[in-house]
């Protein structure tokens, strides 16, 4: 890949106030993101996976500078996102965009699609009104919609079409990075494949870097170059997607992968699910966050936080015991989880090039 | 970039289908709203053209024709000093419509931006504004209006200011509540992510989405303001005699309710029709401004 990554995130942390005293002074915090470090190269896709509430969406918002981090750095295209002036922030908004999970909620119900798409152009380009209108038509065409649909309102479109509009909006100002926050979770499976294909096409065409936030591993497998797994605000494992799916090292990743529904009953026997529920992020356990649920936990795990250490192949794991459990662990378990239905649909909807 | 085919480029140029035109089409499809609109326009015309319409001078007293029942000469009858009631109702439209429209324009014009600021800035700004509106809402509406009008001095314009300021807290509260709800919506965050400055998010994204609630409140408040002007006039704080307003006519009429019921019926009917048409129009506008409606 390229030498200097487009996005560099280092030791990023975000604490939210969970409770306030009578006088408004914060009295309890939730640590949503706790020391996240990651990089994305231009044109690459990094998937961020984890259960709901693990802080993955918060990472997305932090990366875009929509919320202020409590600690750490976000560097995008050589700029420190956390220290931008108002004018710099505006320019940065053209470079980094966001796609939401619910496309209907993310489109202003009282603005026509044309007006919604025109907005980033008006804010970030010096195009004339007529030129902007042509560009809106191009954008609609780019995502597979018709130019005359610009006059319609969001409620006049289907879910998949709305997500296409949201993608067009994200593309309007020619960004370098798009944060996709569960972009296909609200769509049904056939539409999901179309949108994933569209995202991948556009990514290749414009050399976009994607931060793809998802809880659905079967989707991640289709789109991501690298995958990072989050648990309670920390990245526990990060590797090339194929590598991660083939040789998951962290017990949490292993459990996550084996929780994917498998169509063949024969392969179902060797699931390695975790016991219990995730602990409350208000009082996360000391040491390794997973130790309360991990079958491999030893005394050390309860006290010492494991660092995210990468091996030579770029496969990073935050576990004290991954070398011990790797062999008897997942390797002989099931074959890499795979969703044949989704794969068939992806192939079916792929434009024959 | 793919180029546009000529048909869709032409379609884009088509200006006939603008959002405003679609809203108008939705409004014109609603019969009751159109009836309200027609009556409101008629009332405004009557108020403007009052000198041409009224057959008599509304202030001219004729002691030979005191409290006469409606007749061919005096369509609505005459009042206790023999003034022609029809002419007074026609001229009264000026004071009453002004009181309704101007005072609510004041209330909305100040209340909405203040509410927007309160919800949008939060923190101590919100705390100060909210406590202030709480304090105003704690005092009964009419008492506060009377106190304010008395403080400003008796005249119709001061009465309008007093009513406007007194109606403001409702709009501040309503706007604040609506903005609080709207600002956590995804589309507002999306607008931020796109790079919209704060004022544009407030006026372009949040305001159109909270406008319907404000519109309905405004039409209800117009009715309240017309009646409040009547009360202020009765106390000598609104329209100054002998110039008529529907409210002051109604208040005089109550002393003669059994002897000369027409003195109450006609100004009362005028208030009723005005309030009803504003409400119908407001309801229709709320629907017409919603693109989801047919």
How would you summarize this macromolecular structure in one to three sentences?
The complex is a heterodimer of chains A (353) and B (294). Chain A is an alpha/beta fold. Chain A has twelve helices and twelve strands.
Number of helices of chain A: 12
CATH homologous superfamily title of the domain at 1-77 and 211-353 in chain A: P-loop containing nucleotide triphosphate hydrolases
* Major beta sheet, strand line-up of chain A: 6-7-8-3-9-10-12-11
Label the structural class of chain B.
Answer: mainly alpha
Helix run count of chain B: 12
Q: From the 3D structure, determine the CATH topology of chain B.
A: MetI-like fold
Largest sheet of chain B: none
Summarize the amount of helix of chain B as a percent range.
over 70%
CATH class placement of chain B: Mainly Alpha
Mean pLDDT across every amino acid position of chain B: 88
| Low-confidence regions of chain A | 327-336
For the sheet with most strands of chain A, the description reads: 8 strands, mixed
> In CATH's first tier, which class of the domain at 1-77 and 211-353 in chain A applies?
Alpha Beta
Q: What oligomeric assembly is this protein in?
A: heterodimer
What topology does this entry show?
The complex is a heterodimer of chains A (353) and B (294).
Chain A: E1 7-20, E2 26-40, E3 45-49, H1 56-63, E4 71-76, E5 79-80, H2 86-95, E6 96-99, H3 113-124, H4 129-142, H5 159-172, E7 177-181, H6 189-206, E8 209-214, H7 217-223, E9 226-231, E10 234-240, H8 241-246, H9 251-258, H10 299-303, E11 309-310, E12 316-317, H11 322-328, H12 340-349
Parallel strand pairs in A: 3-8, 3-9, 6-7, 7-8
Antiparallel strand pairs in A: 1-2, 1-4, 4-5, 9-10, 10-12, 11-12
Helix pairs in contact in A: 3-4, 3-5, 4-5, 5-6, 6-12
Chain B: H1 6-13, H2 19-28, H3 31-48, H4 50-53, H5 85-121, H6 123-138, H7 141-152, H8 156-183, H9 186-194, H10 198-234, H11 246-253, H12 262-288
């Amino acid at each position: 890949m390229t030498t200097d990554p487009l996005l560099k995130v280092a030791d990023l942390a975000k604490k939210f106030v969970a409770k306030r005293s009578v006088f408004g002074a914060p009295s309890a915090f939730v640590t949503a993101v706790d020391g996240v470090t990651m990089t994305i190269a231009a044109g690459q896709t990094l998937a961020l996976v984890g259960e709901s509430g693990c802080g993955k969406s918060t990472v997305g918002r932090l990366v875009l500078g929509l919320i202020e981090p409590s600690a750490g750095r976000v560097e995008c295209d050589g700029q420190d996102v956390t220290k931008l002036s108002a004018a710099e922030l505006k320019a940065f908004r053209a470079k980094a965009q966001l796609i939401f999970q619910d496309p209907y909620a993310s489109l202003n119900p009282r603005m026509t699609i044309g007006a919604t798409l025109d907005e980033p152009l008006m804010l970030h380009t010096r195009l004339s009104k007529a030129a902007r209108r042509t560009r809106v038509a191009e954008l609609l065409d780019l995502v597979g919609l018709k130019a005359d649909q610009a006059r319609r309102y969001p409620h006049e479109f289907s879910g998949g079409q709305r997500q296409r509009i949201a993608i067009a909006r994200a593309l309007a100002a020619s960004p370098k990075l798009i944060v996709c926050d569960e972009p296909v979770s609200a769509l049904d499976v056939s539409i999901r494949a179309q949108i994933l294909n569209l995202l991948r096409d556009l990514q290749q065409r414009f050399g976009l870097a994607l931060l793809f936030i998802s809880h659905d591993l079967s989707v991640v497998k289709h789109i991501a170059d690298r995958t990072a797994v989050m648990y309670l605000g920390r990245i526990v494992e990060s590797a090339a997607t194929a590598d991660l799916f083939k040789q998951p090292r962290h017990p949490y990743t292993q459990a996550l992968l084996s929780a994917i529904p498998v169509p063949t009953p024969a392969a179902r026997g060797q699931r390695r699910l975790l016991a219990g529920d995730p602990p409350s992020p208000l009082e996360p356990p000391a040491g390794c966050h997973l130790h309360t649920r991990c079958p491999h936990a030893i005394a050390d795990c309860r006290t010492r936080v494991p660092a995210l250490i990468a091996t030579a192949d770029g496969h990073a794991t935050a576990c004290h015991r991954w070398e011990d459990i790797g062999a008897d662990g997942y390797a002989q378990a099931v074959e890499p989880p795979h969703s044949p239905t989704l794969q068939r649909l992806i192939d079916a909807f792929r434009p024959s090039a | 970039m793919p180029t546009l085919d000529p048909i869709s480029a032409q379609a884009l140029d088509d200006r006939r289908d603008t959002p405003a035109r679609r809203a108008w089409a939705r409004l014109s499809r609603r019969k009751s709203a159109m009836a309200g609109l027609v009556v409101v326009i008629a009332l405004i015309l009557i108020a403007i053209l009052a000198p041409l319409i009224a057959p008599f001078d509304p202030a001219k007293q004729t002691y030979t024709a005191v409290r006469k029942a409606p007749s061919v000469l005096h369509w609505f009858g005459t009042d206790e000093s023999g003034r022609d009631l029809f002419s007074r109702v026609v001229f009264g439209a000026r004071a009453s419509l002004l009181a309704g429209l101007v005072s609510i324009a004041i209330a909305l014009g100040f209340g909405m931006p203040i509410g927007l600021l309160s919800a949008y800035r939060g923190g101590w700004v919100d705390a100060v504004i909210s406590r202030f509106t709480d304090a105003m809402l704690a005092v009964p509406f009419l008492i506060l209006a009377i106190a304010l009008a008395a403080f400003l001095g008796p005249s119709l314009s001061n009465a309008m200011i007093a009513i406007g300021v007194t109606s403001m807290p409702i709009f501040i509260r309503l706007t604040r509540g609506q903005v609080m709800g709207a600002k956590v919506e995804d589309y507002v965050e999306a607008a931020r992510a796109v790079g919209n400055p704060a004022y544009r998010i407030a006026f372009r994204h949040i305001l159109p989405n909270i406008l319907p609630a404000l519109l309905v409140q405004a039409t209800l408040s117009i009715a309240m303001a017309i009646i409040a002007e009547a009360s202020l006039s009765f106390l000598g704080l609104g329209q100054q005699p002998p110039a008529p307003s529907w409210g002051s006519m109604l208040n005089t009429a109550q002393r003669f309710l059994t002897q000369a019921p027409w003195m109450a019926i006609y100004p009362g009917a005028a208030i009723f029709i005005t309030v009803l048409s504003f409400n119908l129009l407001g309801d229709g506008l709320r629907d017409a401004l919603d693109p989801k409606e047919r």
